[in-house]
Amino acid sequence: MLNIVIFGAPGSGKGTQSERIVEKFGINHISTGDVLRAEIKNGTELGKTAKGYIDQGQLLPDELIIDILASTLDSFKESKGVIFDGFPRTIAQAEALKKMLAERGQEVSVMLDLDVPEEELMTRLIKRGQESGRADDNEETIKKRLVVYHSQTAPLIDWYKSEGKYQHIHGVGTMDAIFADIVAAVEKL
Ligand code: ADP
User: Main EC class of this protein (predicted)?
Assistant: First the structure.
């Protein structure tokens, strides 16, 4: 089983690199952001709740997102592994993931930290907002998301280091070069 946590600030390229990892290693992909955006599009109760948090640049409550994660994980049959994209985002979520995988006789294989400087993140997200119209990719919300990232999510770097799972990836350069570094890190596991 290959269970990869792809980690990084908003705009660090998690989604793009996840798609390539899925293609190369044949594992399943869970993007909590994509799950929530689909719920919003479908106008579900969960979508309505999620929209309130996302538009404010805030995280959803841990219990809610952990439940979503668990049911998505259970929907994968005969999986070769999973790439977790956008989860965990808090220490409580990382602990829940560890427990969930342990209950299935599994563990996180590696945490890939896509490291990108703040000015570059800002530029990328503003551009993405203009091109895709993603409602949370506007300057004001991006700033809030970056604050949330630093206060609630970045502590996971030390958490995964202490678990012995941390792998730094330089997240600036061509998509191909970054992907090559990711493949090298995964293949040496
Ligand atoms: P980003 O580009 O900011 O990393 P995502 O598409 O992964 O964006 O997530 C968009 C939003 O969905 C987040 O800003 C947050 O409000 C919510 N969200 C996604 N994943 C989680 C999570 N694991 N815990 C709490 N909220 C989440």
Answer: transferase
Gap between the Cα atoms of 148 and 143, Å rounded: 9
Query: How far is the C-alpha of 157 from the C-alpha of 161, rounded, in Å?
Result: 6
145 CA to centre of ligand 1 in angstroms: 9
Q: Tell me how many domains the chain contains.
A: 1
The 10s digit of each residue's pLDDT in 115-133 is 999 999 999 999 999 999 8
Mutate to test the pocket of ligand 1, among 29, 32, 34 (most ligand atoms within 8 A of CB): 32
Is 124 among the catalytic positions? Answer: no
pTM: 0.96
**CATH number of the domain to which 126 belongs:** 3.40.50.300
